[in-house]
Design brief:
It is built from 22 helices and no strands. By secondary structure, it is mostly helical. The protein starts with a helix and ends with a helix.
Amino acid sequence: MSTTASTASIAARLDRLPSSRYVWTLILLLSLGGIFEFYDLFFTAYVAPGLIKAGLFSPASLGVFAGLGLVGAAGFGTFVFATFAGLFVGTLVFGYVADAFGRRAIFTYSLLWYSAATFAMAFQGSGFGVDLWRFIAGIGIGVELVTIDTYIAELIPAATRGRAYAFSQFVTFSVVPVAAFLGWLLVPTKPFGLDGWRILVLIGSVGAIFVWFIRRALPESPRWLANHGRVAEAESVLAMIEARVAEQTGPLPAPGAHAGEEQEQGRFADIWSDQYRHRTIMLSVFNFFQTIGYYGFAAWVPTLLMAKGIHTTTSLAYAFIIAIANPIGPLLGMTFADKIERKWQICGAALGILVFMYAFTTVGNGAAIIIFGILVTLSNNVMSYSFHNYQAELYPTRVRSRAVGFVYSWSRLSAAFAGLMIAFFLKHGGVSAVGVFIAISMAIVILVIGVFGPRTRDLQLEQISH
């Protein structure tokens, strides 16, 4: 049997698998790996008061990072900049490693990298040390997020891919209110004689304790194995998956017709070929602007609330209430994730962010602020699971991780500078100016995806990439 026929057979057998407890367990295990990354990303907003109070962001403490003032990143802004700069390097420079060395291995080692760097950051006594280790941790987070997206796309049958991504983000976003609650509880205190922000950071580093247990239960992607010429291993892994599913669902349906992929090593140039160039440009522009709406709200909630005249303690309480909505968006999305075309889910969510964010910036009543903050959060999270799914579907196995890393890196770069822009608008135009900035960004998202995005719902990965 030719390699192309073998990969087609493997893809067809994966896509005919019915929904089962085993398949959903795989999604859960991958999501548990991502939960530490989401905790880390979202505690950024909640450690800010503690880091600032500790005096870690004076020019003398920041060392060479004080030079970021030349691009407008001063004080705590250097921490945010270091976070997203690390994510940018992780996704752009190292996004290819899961294509080269396998989804399973990189899932494991990127999480260990992140955990070790975060642990080191918790014990730094200067702004320079905090920012340096934050940058290093960001590299690991960037690689992990790309790897999880790639992994899920290749393991999950076409008919349930949308729900799989929605469920994965329901699990990972469940940690956001936990981070918000712990920030509210710990940051103003000194448990065990340590600054509360240090305890909050240390909690995020415990992923290393669990990763080996998660790793043992995860199979390598049969699609990746087959693409690298390891067809016998791919057959063995797939036979194990089929046996586990059959134990729970009974005899499996016969595989359908399926397009295969040629066995070849992916190259960066592939994502700029005539076949994929327009997708690469479209997703790069989309990612650059989507993160302005996403992190422009999520990472700035307490600050925006304080700018509206709300006391610091009250703003943290409001932020916690709003954060509770984070896992609800993907949970709701599971009801329509595989029923509505992916591109229109992204556009609808962006429209929601545009409308609700503007309303959030203009209302003054506490209850209204919370309601619109929750609606922005729900819209953000629907957009998040939709686009993570969408961009992983648009490229072939040989370059999936590399391509997702490249296009996703634009969101990391954007986030590093979006904070500077939001700080600028907040200073010179207030919260309403921030709302307008985010609204314009969401309008661009709707235009780019709505006009140029291909359809992917119910299509096999190999159909989409061909």
